[in-house]
Amino acid sequence: MSQTTLLHHIGATPPEIAAALEHRANIIAMTQSAEDAVLIPRETGAWSHDLRHALAARIARLHGLGDLSETYGARVNDPALAPVTDPSKDGAAQGLAHVCAFMDKVAARTRDVTAGDIKGLQDAGVVDADIVRLCEIAAFLAYQLRTLAGLRLMSEVWT
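-> structure tokens emitted (159 positions)
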């Protein structure tokens, strides 16, 4: 099975887990395809590949996954966007305070997101298609973080 972001971050994989993953190689491949579609799409809208990776790194760091955050952060080629990877920074220096605040809320307090949050993005000039793109990034990261946590837990149980 080829190396994917998810497999890279599982850590030591006991034979039982490796065998299970081998039987589910299609799910691992589809997860990587989803990551690529969200983080390096052909049509980026307002959000460059660098910004998408910076936001992914930010979300991973918000959830305490420094290793995954570093992986995504290393894919940010624009040094001006590097601070966006850090949730302690508000993104104002990059003109992205509204985006960072929205992504932080969606990633850490999803149940608190309201129509007002969407309206705030619209008022800041973000078009609906780009709001959807932000939500795709957040949704994929939520899936990936949970999948990674589950696989790491399984690996711990088997070792």
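The chain has one domain: 5-158.
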